[in-house]
Structures are given as C-alpha cells and as structure tokens.
Amino acid sequence: MLATEPITETHLRAVLDNAEIIHDSAAVAEALDTMASSISAAYAGTQPLFLGVMTGAIVPLGRLLPRLEFALELDYIHATRYHGSTTGRDLLWLARPQTPLKGRHVVVVDDILDEGTTLAGILQECRDQGAASVATAVLVDKRHERRMPGLEAEFVGLEVPDRYVFGAGMDYRGYFRNVAGIYAIAEAFLDES
Hints:
Largest sheet: 6 strands, mixed
Shape: globular
Helix content: 10-25%
Strand order of the largest sheet: 4-3-2-5-6-7
Number of helices: 4
Distance between the termini: 9 Å
Strand content: 25-35%
CATH topology: Rossmann fold
Number of strands: 9
Order of helices and strands: HEHEHEEEHEEEE
C-alpha cells in the first residue's frame, strides 16, 4: 500500500492484529519511572527547558512530565523526515522553539532514537541558539549500525530490535501513537514509500 492511498479501517486492524508486541504497557510505564528518576537526579534545581519533538514526543513526554517533581519549562520543536510514510527523507523544519535557549539547560525528549538524522539536527539547533547544555531523553533506542556516529541519548527507556515499531508515541503512517505498548509491524505491512 502506497502512502498516498487511503488507509482503511480493515487495513489498520490487520496491521495491529498481526503486529508483535515488543514491550507491553507495564514495561513502558516502568521505563518512564526509571527515566524520570535519572532525569530528576541530573536536573532537579536547574530549572531546565524540556523540548518535546513533535509529533512523536506527545505521548512519552505527556507521561514523563508528571513523574518529574521539580520546576521545569516546556516548549516544542517540530522537524520530520517521514511526512506520513514509513521511510525517512530529507529533514523538514515545521517549528523551532519559541522559548529562548541561550544559557538554558535543555532536555530534548523524543519517542525514538533510530538513525539520528532528525535528532542530530535538533541538537545542533539547540547548540546554535546558545543552550548551556543539551541532553536527550528517548523512550526507545533502536539498536543498529546505521546510527549517526557518536550519537547516543543520555536518558533511554527501552531498547527495540531493528524493526519498524509503533505505539507509545510512535506511529504507523500517522496511526497507533495512542497504543499503550510497543509493537513491531509484520513484514507484510511495510511499504516502499
């Protein structure tokens, strides 16, 4: 199915029914607790600025923030390579942060660290704006050899195999960000677009 074709409810149900669960909702919640503990130890008392990378960060960021019991500010940044597809393309900037970053401790929160092209561009944007420090917090770290050299997240919730995953903020062609667990899509549903 090409990304330009309409997605039917039948197709979406088949994708979910044939997906393999990688981490259930309890594992996701435990990972968020662990991340919150580590982030709190590192940033309590510093009044950091959290930048959610849209759209994938909405779910993990929304679930992470109530676990952080210290003063922080929140803004967002939106850069994408996927444009509704399952394969990445050139980086497209949709929104840069509105909060000044100069002199701030910035924590960039995203759903997944995959190859890292999008995240690397966002981190560079933060540095270019004069952030005092920049760290990354990702719910999921996908382990493979295609990652940009040297790019690692400081705070990681879970690892996943080198497969197309969705749920807990990550999507399949714009759908299933709301699924509580993390699933790997069946090969039959991967597209070439």
